[in-house]
Amino acid sequence: MKLTKFVDRLPIMETIKPTSRNHNGAYYEVRMEEFRQKLHRDLRPTRLWGYNSQFPGPTFEVMKGEPIQVKWINNLPAKHFLPVDKSIHHLEHEPEVRTVTHLHGSVTKPDSDGYPEAWYTNGFAQVGPYFEREVYEYPNNQRATTLWYHDHAMGITRLNVYAGLAGMYIIRDKREKSLPIPSGKYEIPLFIQDRSFNDDGSLFYPSQPDDATESLPNPSIVPAFQGDTILVNGKVWPYLEVEPRKYRFRIVNGSNTRGYQLFLDSEQPFYQIGSDGGLMKKTVQESTIELDPAVRVDVIIDFSQYEGQNVTLKNNLGPNADPNDETDDIMQFRVSLPLSGEDKSIIPRHLSQIPSLKQNNIQAIRNLKLVGTDDEYGRPLLVLDNKKWMDPITEKPTLGSTEIWSLINVTGFSHPIHIHLIQFQVLDRQPFDLDNYNRDGSIILTGSATAPLPNEQGWKDTIAAPSAQITRVIAKFEPYTGDYVWHCHILEHEDYDMMRPFTIIDPNSNNGDS
Ligand code: C2O
Ligand code: CU
Ligand code: CU
Predict the structure, then answer these.
(1) Where do the H-state alpha helices sit in 111-173?
(2) Is residue 369 lining ligand 1, measured as CB closer than 6 Å?
(3) In the predicted model, what is the mean pLDDT of residues 196-200?
(4) Which chain residues have CB less than 5 Å from ligand 2, an ion?
(5) Is 102 a pocket residue for ligand 1 (Cβ < 6 Å)?
(6) N or C end of the chain: which has fewer CB within 10 A?
(7) How many angstroms separate the CA atoms of 146 and 149, rounded?
């Protein structure tokens, strides 16, 4: 089905209003529901699952230091409308539709973090082995930044998110508000996702890999999935009318597998001011931006020289791209609105302080391999450090300790690795000989360590760990003890089985590493 580009206006998600306020702060109720929404002029309304019947979900806007409570209510049907593979994670024993919401990048206690096994069904009729609490608490005691919330249920995260269960969450603070950067109607969220459609307008998601043999489970998980259509804020290839002035865009990659390499066809630069964990030290001017799944970038684009022109936000597919691949376009900016007043915003050089964690006393260095194997059906099975989700917990940082995690990628492709609770700093990347590793299992370094890209030098919670490289990150594990997870954020990998629990241990109790 061929959809005309740039015929729908970019929608802006609505800001959610609290259901009530009490002494604990604002209280929200959010219902996960099935509904239909028109995603393109020429598409019939698409069946989706979303928060408060919106796709993407409504945006939370909160101030730093002001806690909120959210009751995430599962009102979904008992049957999934996407193909659930019951051969993984013993899902044949579990209800087909399970949900648990995670606020990605947030600093929350474990009982509000959306542990994958803390799922529940419609009306809490059935709960997983790890039930948390019915009303989640978000302290919002962290740097101002763009977070996003999405489903995280064990073994079906890819399907729940693809069905529409994702939205944005913005934490603001006074300091950021005082910066003379574009704000108000000149600050725009861009939530980028890929999807494929059937002719009747329904979402297409493969029920088996293309090369499936008869012995494969049906449905079967696929090792990766990229939709052939790009949506921003829930519309296919939309356009946005802008004034000839500066705008701030908070960009989130909410796609399952697809990473983007953003650029503007006007050849103008992005001025990146923020990364996953908020404002960077200095503004980074760049002509392209890598946007892996789950990564957020906060950029200023200056349209002042482009009055009357169209500027397309593009995705560089590389020189070997299939000529029929339409995903080189993301959306269009039409510099068609009259300037409604002088643009007094500026692009600051210096943005914030970021103390380096390297000065800290390092309590542990963990060498963690990203590994590809096969399962009993011959399907690719990706794992972290040769362990599956169900294996005993091996990563147990002590509360308040600083650790270095070395992500040694011995697979053939890059994985965006995400750690819950903390924001880390990227130390460096160093190449090694993968052929040699495949021969005898030893790591032989083939070059010196290189610094992270300029836009990776702020706080990050999701980082590209490229093939045949060691990517080192440093983090301080605080402020809570308990069980969290880390995983590849390619959702098809996360579901099978590139996700592991980790536990932050209280140094004063005696359940530490032994
Ligand atoms: Cu965006 Cu564990 O997730
Ligand atoms: Cu997360
Ligand atoms: Cu991966």
Answers:
(1) 157-163
(2) no
(3) 97
(4) 104, 420
(5) yes
(6) C
(7) 10
Q: Are strands 239-241 and 101-104 parallel, antiparallel or unpaired?
A: unpaired
Alpha carbon distance 258, 6 (integer Å) = 21
- Please write the tens of the pLDDT for every residue from 367-420: 999 999 999 999 999 999 999 999 999 999 999 999 999 999 999 999 999 999
As a whole number of angstroms, the distance between CA 236 and CA 324 comes to 17
Q: Are strands 402-409 and 239-241 parallel, antiparallel or unpaired?
A: unpaired
Cis status, amide bond into 497, omega within 30 of 0: yes
Summarize the confidence of residues 138-152 as an average pLDDT: 98
Q: What is the mean pLDDT of the chain?
A: 97
Residue 312 per-residue DSSP state: E
Residue 487 beta carbon below 6 angstroms from any ligand 1 atom? yes
Model pTM greater than 0.85? yes
Which whole number is the average pLDDT over 503-510? 89
Residue 211's pLDDT band (boundaries 50, 70, 90)? confident
- What are the structure tokens assigned to 466, written together? 């490229």
Q: Is the pLDDT of residue 512 over 50?
A: no
11 Cβ partners below 8 Å, 6+ apart?
Answer: 233, 234, 235, 238
At 177, give phi and psi (nearest 5°): -65, -25
Whether residue 513 is predicted with pLDDT greater than 80 in this model: the reply is no
356 burial type by CB count under 10 A (0-12 exposed, 13-18 middle, 19+ buried): exposed
Interval between CA 328 and ligand 2 midpoint (Å): 28
Strand pairing partners for 349? Answer: none
Of the chain, the end-to-end C-alpha distance in Å amounts to 58
Q: Regarding beta strands 239-241 and 270-275, do their DSSP bridges make them parallel or antiparallel, or are they unpaired?
A: unpaired
Both tokens of 45, joined, read 């309304």
- Write down the residue that tokens 């011959």 correspond to: 378
Q: Give the tokens for residue 262.
A: 């953003």
**What local confidence, expressed as pLDDT, does residue 362 receive?**
98
Residues facing residue 252 across a β-bridge? 191, 296
